[in-house]
């Protein structure tokens, strides 16, 4: 059994998460920006199907990407350099957060529906309005072809979802984000769940206790000045590869 949370109920300690399914901690009827801030600051995130209650998770172990360990494979580097040389590739931060989230919510091939509900969309857009959620967009010839979004609190970035409408476009967005986080002395990017795709990019699992300890310190640090990255394209971040 997991607790059902009312509007003002605190989250239970993450150690009370279920072993099966791994990390399931609590459920609630609604999701909003305030609850998301509390959740992420404690190493908790929402993930649920469209017709389910809001389910809150804190798996053990936790998949993370240390920014120093990001793996840009040769094929990705070639694609980045080709795009830069052609002058068609452009990377923006917060160019259109809502549109990027909509793209991430679009049904994927072989999968019906989406886990990004309208209520979730509204809550994360509210976070973005508050300066606590940010997107990275990849453009080819002025057209958005890939991107990602996530939550940023203090010196911690919690990745949420990516989309790609062109080969490697989501990986290019991640490569740009990683370089931005390196410049801002952010050592860790939360990936939430273990996948072979993330592992191929250098992500690895760490103990939940270590993850939560890092988060507790990181969210209390001065936040990144995201506004400075919105003023112009940040394509030059990719020249590090």
Tell me what the structure shows:
The protein is an alpha+beta fold and 241 residues long. It folds into two domains: 4-59, Leucyl/phenylalanyl-tRNA-protein transferase, N-terminal domain (Alpha-Beta Plaits, 2-Layer Sandwich); 63-240, Leucyl/phenylalanyl-tRNA-protein transferase, C-terminal domain (Aminopeptidase). It has helices at 33-40, 74-86, 97-105, 118-129, 169-183, 196-200, 208-218, 227-230; strands spanning 4-5, 24-28, 45-46, 54-57, 62-66, 89-93, 133-140, 143-153, 156-164, 188-192, 204-206. The strands form two sheets. It has a seven-stranded mixed sheet, sandwiched between helices.
Present the secondary structure layout.
Layout: E1 4-5, E2 24-28, H1 33-40, E3 45-46, E4 54-57, E5 62-66, H2 74-86, E6 89-93, H3 97-105, H4 118-129, E7 133-140, E8 143-153, E9 156-164, H5 169-183, E10 188-192, H6 196-200, E11 204-206, H7 208-218, H8 227-230
Parallel strand pairs: 1-2, 9-10
Antiparallel strand pairs: 2-4, 3-4, 5-10, 5-11, 6-7, 7-8, 8-9
């Amino acid at each position: 059994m997991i607790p059902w949370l009312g509007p003002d109920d605190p989250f239970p300690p993450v150690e009370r998460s279920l072993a099966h399914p791994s990390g399931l901690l609590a459920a609630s009827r609604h999701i909003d920006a305030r609850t998301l801030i509390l959740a992420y600051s404690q190493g908790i995130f929402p993930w649920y199907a469209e017709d389910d209650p809001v389910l809150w998770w804190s798996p053990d172990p936790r998949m993370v990407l240390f920014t120093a360990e990001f793996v840009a494979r040769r094929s990705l580097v070639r694609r980045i350099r080709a795009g830069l040389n052609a002058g068609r590739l452009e990377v923006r931060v917060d160019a259109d957060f809502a549109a990027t989230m909509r793209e991430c919510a679009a049904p994927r091939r072989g999968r019906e529906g989406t886990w990004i509900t309208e209520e979730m969309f509204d809550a994360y857009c509210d976070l973005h309005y508050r300066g606590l959620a940010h997107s990275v967009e990849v453009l080819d010839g002025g057209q958005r072809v890939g991107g990602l979004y996530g939550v940023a609190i203090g010196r911690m970035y919690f990745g949420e979802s990516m989309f790609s409408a062109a080969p490697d476009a989501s990986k290019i967005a991640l490569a740009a984000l990683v370089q931005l986080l390196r410049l801002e002395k952010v050592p860790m990017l939360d990936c939430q769940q273990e996948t072979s795709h993330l592992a191929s990019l250098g992500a690895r699992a760490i103990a939940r206790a270590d993850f939560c300890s890092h988060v507790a310190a990181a969210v209390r640090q001065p936040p990144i000045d995201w506004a400075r990255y919105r003023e112009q394209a940040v394509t030059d971040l990719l020249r590090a590869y």
